[in-house]
Amino acid sequence: MRWTPRVTVAAVIENQGRFLVLEESENSAQQGPTVINQPAGHLEDGESLLAAVIRETLEETAWRFTPEAITGIYRWVHPDKGHTYLRVTYTGSVSDHDPLLTLDTGILRTHWLSREELLERSLRSPMVMRCIDDYLAGHRYALSLCDDVI
What we know:
19% of the residues lie in helices and 38% in strands.
């Protein structure tokens, strides 16, 4: 059987020192503790990375996201499941919040939290803080770093 990583995208969105994050159920049964994550999700078949991060941000936060740069590309192996994730993280701005939009299943609410507040919360994975720290360190790469080749 061929090994395949799980390709995901995420958005680091900062406004006046606070980051747009979501509070979600830790497991698919939507029971038990909650965790904090950036707007993030899996790349769908036939979808570009840019389209995926725009879609995921809207579905999970009800904000329209405009990507401006890539903050990093990360590989992480889940310590319990053994799944390998390849995550492309973008930064940009949001506009046109739609409070009537139903958020994805499992998403309880969104928050604007500072880095210090994030350190006090349970995070979905170590990638959450790593992406924010890279953003704060000024990591910015051209969107063309991950272009589609047609």
